[in-house]
Amino acid sequence: MSALGKAAITGVGMSDIGRNTGRPAIIHLAEAADRALARAGLTRADIDGIATYPGKAENSPGMSPLGTGEVRNALGLQTRWHSAVPDGPAQMAPIMVAAMAVLTGQARHVMCFRALTESSSQTAGRRASIAGAGKAQIGGWMGWLAPVGALSASNWAGWMATRYFHEFGMTREHLGMVATGERRFALMNPAAVMQKPLTMDDYLAARTISSPLGLFDCDIPIDGAAVVIVSAPDAARNCRLAPLEIEAMGSALRSQETWDQRADLTTMGAHDAGADMWCRTSLGPRDVDVLGLYDGFSIFVPMWLEALGFCGHGEAKDFIAEGNIGPGGRFPVNTGGGQLSGGRLHGFGLLYEVCLQLWGEAGARQVANARTGVCGMGGGFIAGSMLIRRD
């Protein structure tokens, strides 16, 4: 990457998000796109590439209602390159692919997007986010989980948490520090969907979802969209804001592509991707000012902290208890409220927030002098990590 210069993030945008908004996904997407373009100082005519995760999908209601075609048509884009990445380093995949595209001359400015209507798509009789639910036949590794009713990712995260608790003595109170810390950040973010304080007592009293995980250990389905614009090095210099250079990326995977067959269930694909990322830069965890770590379930946050080397294996509970990741901590995590309190945009919202921090646009929750950020997306076996910095 260094021989060609570094790809950069030049604009990010998020729609007005909410629960049961009733707004079509394309309206959310157009709003997020226009906000990202305004931040970058670009127009729709400047966008010559488009990428998304995972592409249009019908297997889970509202999870991915838009493909690149609908968005190109709705926004009137004339693209030279496009991509949808259903199989790759988690939700980070389209941003990584976009970085490679601009460095190889396939495009100058790539619009990467994620749009969801999971909240509006849920009904009393239809759960969103349960891939394959209601199908007569379910194949692949899911076929082994369906007979025992383990179709939800909460089940899979629950057994990982159980093993981690057993091995390292983590307790629900430790995960409660993750959830309540992110809620404190959310209260400083007017865009976050959860705007009521969350105490440890509230957290512990909530109903169990998949032991040991309770209600507030699970992220929140919403309607909304987020856009990240990735630009070529020379093109980035002409944008409105200082480019956020993509310093390094990691996407290694060294285990089976199932949640339940990893040799060590106290680790995830994040551990492979994180180690891979640090091999590509002279920077290290000590240089990072702000973190966006995938929190589809609270247990992922301590596992990502360990995967990225912010603490040793099994040490995350103490690292969290020392106050490192909450408001005022040395390594603040998910400062916009994360997916546990801000709303689930499958990682795009986490990167959006890291970018705001590095541009100094995070308002009351702004981390002082934030110049370098890391974002990790994905749970289970899939993961992608990215280190970005502002000169």
TrEMBL record:
Q: Name one Pfam family in it.
A: Thiolase_C_1
| Signal sequence region | none
Listed PANTHER family: ACETYL-COA C-ACETYLTRANSFERASE, NON-SPECIFIC LIPID-TRANSFER PROTEIN-LIKE 2
Q: Indicate the segments annotated as coiled coil, or none if absent.
A: none
The UniProt keywords, alphabetically, are: Transferase
Q: Which residues form the Thiolase C-terminal domain?
A: 255-383
Q: Name one GO molecular function term.
A: acetyl-CoA C-acyltransferase activity
- The organism's superkingdom is given as Bacteria
Looking up InterPro entries in the UniProt record yields:
Thiolase, Thiolase-like, Thiolase_C_2
What organism is recorded for this protein?
Novosphingobium kunmingense
Protein name, please?
Acetyl-CoA acetyltransferase
